[in-house]
Give the backbone structure.
Amino acid sequence: GSYVKNCSDKVDSVRNFTEITIISIGLIIFVVGASILNCEYRYTHSQNICVNINYRI
């Protein structure tokens, strides 16, 4: 019995880790995408701002 419980605990922790990883990657993609869109949006207003942001990164 203890082995089965141990195994299911591992599965749960792996599942939690996977969910956290997927959420983190999603957030990173969202932030990067938003900053790129923001940069393009500003680029249309004044071209220097976007260039400066890109150089700083």
Notes: Residues 2-45 form the longest helix (44 residues). Residues 2-56 form one domain. The CA atoms of residues 15 and 28 lie 20 Å apart. The chain has one domain: 2-56.
